[in-house]
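Universal stress protein, pasting as requested.
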Amino acid sequence: MTDQPIVVGYDGTDAAQRAVEFAGQRATAVGCAVHLVYVLEWSPYSFLSTQELEERHKRRTEELSRAEQTLKPALDTLNKLKIPVTSEVRYGHSGELICEIAKEKDACQIIVGRKGGSTLGARLLGSLPLTLVQASPVPVTVVP
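Structure tokens follow.
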């Protein structure tokens, strides 16, 4: 049994659900909790009018609600396995934020799903798994 949770990056895709299922297996094997993270990409560096700020606030509220609903299947999966699970939705850059949360939670591991294919955009701009493998303070597992 360990007090260090597994952090799982989750976005509601099939790949993310496979990552949750794998995390459930690992958590059961080592006796730890799972912390689910849903990251909403957001940049604080934009200049907006008052009306745009109001609209942005409304969109953020809607995004948070959708994110909480998106997390539900992952929470259900882990709850059925009787694994202690927590979750959070935060704004920021996915790779940086998941690494930061892993440090905050003193995680033993990060698990994410791999989206299929190898697009030109992912090769040129990078991908979440690549960012995590390069920057993570803990081991990273990428689930196919």
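Note for the archive: The two ends are 27 Å apart (CA to CA).
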